[in-house]
Write a sequence for this structure.
């Protein structure tokens, strides 16, 4: 069976499904970490009304809503792009379910299936078996392979492994690419 890893991250306007999905980035790799495809989405609700927490925007992901709005596509357009992307990455072999990988990935998937594609469409191409990078790091920490006092956030893991990635933390694409590199380092353990 061939493995395809679907690394992803999403940025929202706050914690909770009542907040808007603002950006999402998907990158699919084979078992040798060859990039098979990527999709970068900048999104706006179909009605054009964002639901955001000002602190989340100002202090966490630093997304400028005016700029985002002018560069974004609607959820409906994003749904079509995501569905087509997943279908193309899935391929014709039913044994090549995409395995989602990310940090705090369950929350990202929940927002994606709430705002973009249905759970049924997602489950058609993407495995229910997820790999949460920070949970994997916690396992290695408990096994003595990572320092006991190491904070297990993506930023701390990036620094611990000496990973350099262009971009700002809490941008969907940057966090995804950091996740790829952290996952590679964790695999070496």
């Amino acid at each position: 069976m061939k493995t395809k890893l679907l690394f992803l991250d999403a940025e929202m306007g706050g914690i909770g499904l009542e907040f808007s999905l603002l950006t999402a980035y998907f990158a699919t790799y084979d078992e040798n970490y060859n990039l098979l495809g990527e999709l970068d989405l900048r999104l706006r609700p179909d009605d054009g009304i964002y639901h955001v927490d000002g602190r989340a925007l100002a202090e966490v992901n630093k997304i400028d809503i005016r700029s985002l709005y002018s560069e974004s596509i609607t959820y409906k357009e994003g749904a079509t792009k995501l569905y087509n992307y997943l279908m193309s990455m899935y391929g014709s072999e039913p044994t090549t379910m995409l395995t989602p990988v990310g940090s705090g990935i369950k929350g990202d998937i929940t927002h994606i299936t709430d705002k973009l594609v249905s759970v049924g469409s997602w489950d058609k191409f993407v495995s229910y078996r997820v790999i949460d990078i920070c949970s994997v790091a916690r396992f290695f920490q408990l096994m003595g392979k990572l320092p006991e006092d190491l904070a297990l956030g993506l930023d701390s893991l990036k620094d611990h492994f000496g990973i350099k990635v262009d971009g700002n933390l809490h941008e969907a694409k940057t966090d995804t690419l950091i996740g790829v590199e952290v996952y590679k380092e964790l695999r070496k353990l």
Q: What stands out?
A: The beta strands are 4-12, 21-30, 35-44, 73-74, 98-102, 131-132. The two ends are 23 Å apart (CA to CA). Residues 4-133 form a domain with the Nucleotidyltransferase; domain 5 fold (CATH 3.30.420.10). The mean pLDDT is 92.
